[in-house]
Amino acid sequence: MSTKDDHGHAVPGDAAENKGGATILLFFILGFAASLVIGWGIFPKLLYSTKPQPFNFNHALHNQEVGDCESCHFFREDGTFSGVPTLAQCTDCHEDVLGESEDETIFVEQYVWKEREVPWHVYSRQPDCVFFSHAAHVIQAKMGCETCHGDIGTSTALKPYQENRITGYSRDIWGYSIAGFKTHTYDRMKMDDCAECHEQAVGSVDQAPAPGVVGRHFRQEVVPAIYPLDRQAAVGSSVQTHRDACFVCHK
């Protein structure tokens, strides 16, 4: 049996079927390519907006002047973490303009002299339902700040802040790879990343030490110091509650 082509000529049935299959395959490839372009290229640009910080901040310069991160980001006597420095902390050194930096002038004239807190866009701000204890991770688990925040202490400028137009949270939480790939521990701050780190830290006392400084410290020092040998294998990954449950991180 035959059919006719676009010019009215008879075409064998098999040839007509092959032509139709090729057309479908072509449209599939074009649709797939368009989906990749829109989903990986255009959509992220529409989903995230870039917001400027009030002014630039040089972490490397401040580390050089004050000595270390803990001078500005410290633990209070009750164990809570101070987080982003308040204006009161900064005015100890910045009552007047220091140097000739435009950012210094903006800070002192617009915030210090007017006694206004700096409205920083916080890259690592988590949803309100998430509880994160810096004391548990830094003091008890001996984790370094760069594990989650990268080498920000050596940076001379703040990176662009990108905010999700729907959720209002920083892109640093989801990560910059739309496919979910990451090469560093600080590339994302999603629940999956926390769970992955905790899973690596716990491991099993009968197996080789879990990879990384955190895992070795947790299994070799924290757990033996708290639990008898017969209970160590069942210990959860939280150094505060020693359990694995939703309530540990979600209040």
Topology of this structure?
Blueprint: E1 2-4, E2 10-12, H1 13-47, E3 48-51, H2 59-66, H3 87-90, H4 102-112, H5 134-140, H6 146-149, E4 161-164, H7 171-174, H8 191-202, H9 212-226
Antiparallel strand pairs: 1-2, 3-4
Describe the structure.
This protein is mainly alpha-helical and 251 residues long. It has 9 helices and 4 strands; from the N terminus they run E-E-H-E-H-H-H-H-H-E-H-H-H. It has a two-stranded antiparallel sheet with strand order 1-2. Strands 3-4 form a two-stranded antiparallel ribbon.
Keywords:
40% helix; mainly alpha; globular; two-stranded antiparallel sheet; 251 residues; single chain
Q: What is the strand tally?
A: 4
Quote the distance from N terminus to C terminus. Answer: 71 Å
Give helix and strand order, one letter per element, not per position.
Answer: EEHEHHHHHEHHH
Which ranges are low-confidence, i.e. pLDDT below 50, for 5 or more consecutive residues? Answer: 204-211
Would you tell me the overall average pLDDT? 79
Strand content: 5-15%
Order of the strands making up the biggest sheet: 1-2
Characterize the largest beta sheet: strand count, sense, and whether it forms a barrel: 2 strands, antiparallel
What percent of residues adopt helix (DSSP H or I)?
A: 25-40%
What is the approximate shape?
Answer: globular
Structural class: mainly alpha
Radius of gyration: 27 Å
Number of helices: 9
